[in-house]
Amino acid sequence: MARWHMRAALAIVSCTVTLNTGTLGYLAPGQSSSMSTTPRARRGVRALKAATLPKVAEGDAKAESSPLRSVDVYATLPTMDLRLSDVTAGRPANSEAHTIDLARGPPIADPFALCRDELTPFSDNVKALVETENPVLSQAATMFFEQRHGKRFRPTIVALMAKALPVVHARDDAETCKAKQDRLGQITEMIHVASLIHDDVLDDADTRRGGDAIHKMYSNKVAVLSGDYLLARASVLLARLQHKQVVEVMAKALDSLVSGEIMQIKSNGAADKKAAADGDESRDAPAAAPEAKPSFFERALAALKLGKDGKQKKSEIAARDAKEMELYLRKSYYKTASLICDASKSCALLAGHDFDSATARAAEEYGYHLGLAFQIVDDVLDFVVDSDDLGKPAGADLSLGLATAPILYAAQDLPELRPLIDRRFKGDGDVTRAYETVRASRGLELSRKLAHFHAQRAVDAICRVAPDSEARDALISVCYIVLSRNK
């Protein structure tokens, strides 16, 4: 069923638009949009250098040949060792840039207040857009918009971006342009809620936003159909914007959401199969013969090779750690950052900015880095906030077998975590042991530094193109909120 409703989500979009094969990269001023997608130089774990991720994960050759795999992830790590350096070092020169200082606080205490009045009728508007003849389906589809709508983070970003970016050469008058940008915010939230409903089915989650998950309140079938229906309605509303490039960009966001979920399912499924196979082999294998004691000559030869083998082993460990972090960032981009990133760029396109303009690219970059910072902090909170405040079970990622940034950073200093990661925390007591080990390690601190790095890059991006205004200050302040949030 999981594969079926993922295909259904993509089919909804594919009947509306044919995706191009462009890339998601941020071009330097004056650089051609046909830039090479060759990955940058790899980095070691101890001296983290910026790197563009490969297009697909190793072993995913089939996905690479698919025309839908058009997104080239621009996930980067800081250009310095997080253990030693200031995360703001190495930033591009920009006289208009704002440096994040959590001790000083954000420029605006409550950036959401700037567009709160505009979003007040949001729930009623969305409810009217998703009315169906089936009352159960309508109730399930609108649950998150009426009772558990949260802060409406994504619609707020779209609304603030619309205020911050000037309207230039728009095909519509100012009023129509604003109406389309408001509708884009609604579409973005509908896609996000649909992804939450589907994720909860796939993860068999019990709660969401402090209440029962939709599939627990009704059934898996109702939850899947509710999510599909929201995606279908979002696609229809997207087409009514009558902006081909916006449709293409937002269709990529849908593709990315599904790709991220597939990555997660494949990694967990492979781990489960390996664990089962290892268990079968251990039951059937004959008892091992006692090992012969090595001779003096063998021990001497091993000592001579120790230095060389040690260097090779360190190199292999560094390559493994780098690959794991890259895959983590890729999945984080797909599942979280892609929708914020593409909605931000679409907002700029509706304001009349060209697809490859500096403004559209900066809006895209802001959403990309903000989305990654949001996800990294979310993964940190999984270790430091209890279930009631978090709105979902604490340690849920570990229970799903997911190695997030705190785990990966902790494992670089604590090798005892490695076997737990390799078996996806499936052993008895693995989840509790990993949870306590990470909390006592530097994994949480380094993860927060990584989130700070991306939040600062988001601020740098919006400061490059948005004129000084209250809306720009609000977008900067959102980055503060992402870094300091506790739920």
Q: What does the main sheet amount to?
A: 2 strands, antiparallel
Low-confidence spans: pLDDT under 50, at least 5 residues?
1-77, 280-289
Strand content: under 5%
Helix percent band: 55-70%
Structural class: mainly alpha
Write down how many β-strands occur, each being a DSSP E stretch of 2 or more residues.
2
Number of helices: 19
On the 0 to 100 scale, the average pLDDT is: 75
* Biggest β-sheet: strands ordered side by side in the sheet: 1-2
Radius of gyration: 24 Å
Q: Give the CA-based shape.
A: globular
Distance between the termini: 31 Å
Throw out a few tags for this protein.
19 helices, 2 strands, Isoprenoid_synthase_dom_sf, mainly alpha, two-stranded antiparallel sheet, transferase, 487 residues, Polyprenyl_synt, disordered N terminus, single chain, 62% helix
Write structural notes for this entry.
InterPro entries: Isoprenoid_synthase_dom_sf (IPR008949), Polyprenyl_synt (IPR000092), Polyprenyl_synt_CS (IPR033749). Belongs to the FPP/GGPP synthase family. Keywords: Isoprene biosynthesis, Magnesium, Metal-binding, Transferase. This is Polyprenyl synthetase. A two-stranded antiparallel sheet has the order 1-2. Helices cover 62% and strands 1% of the residues. The protein has helices at residues 2-14, 61-64, 116-119, 122-129, 135-146, 153-164, 174-203, 214-217, 220-239, 244-284, 296-350, 358-384, 387-390, 396-399, 405-413, 418-422, 430-439, 443-465, 470-484; strands spanning 207-208, 211-212. It has 487 residues and is mostly helical.
